[in-house]
Amino acid sequence: MIRVLIVDDHKVVRQGLQVFLGQEPDIEIVGEATNGREAVERVGALHPDVVLMDLVMPEMDGIAATTAIKRQFSDVEVIAMTSFIEDEKVFAAMQAGTTGYLLKDAAPDDVTKAIRLAARGQVHLDPRAAARLMRELRPHTPEHAEADALTPREQEVLRLLARGLSNSEIAQALVVSDKTAKSHVSSILSKLGLASRTQAVIYALKVGLVQLDEIEIPSGGGE
Length: 223
What we know:
By secondary structure, the protein is an alpha/beta fold. It has helices at 11-21, 36-46, 62-72, 87-96, 108-119, 127-137, 144-148, 152-162, 167-174, 178-192, 197-206; strands at residues 2-7, 27-33, 50-54, 77-82, 100-103, 124-125.
């Protein structure tokens, strides 16, 4: 079972998510929170696998809450869900460590797919969010010195990670053990000073190790 915490300050949104997610046999709703501060507390108490996180909330917004959650509970995956598709919010959410970015008009199938991918540590972006992410990335100069700090094998692992492969799938692709693949991923994050696989995807895009069309993004909804 994938344990999910729903975080949103609107009761109707929380109830709507409860209704259709409650019908999924592999997803269990373990709790709700109405603001970011409460979300951090609930994650500590309930230990969910995935958090569906609204970005605009009172007391503590979703970006600050995601940052706090990833700092304290690195194994918990966070999916941003919002009505807004502003460039700065998309990039800030990804930098904070979210594993996905969905709009609240997303189809139920996209939400459940994002949850299942997040539970495996895989990134899932709404195509509209992906377009804005690329606009935010364009002005940045690739930091080749940092990229050069990775061994050729680590660069290969980063490419596979950025393309959405799980540790197990990376291991299969490289014909190594799951433990070795996990070790490579941990080394990459440590060398680059990154807090999550999502940040690694952003980095790989920035330095040109992968292109946006290589990352698995659901079809439809483009600009």
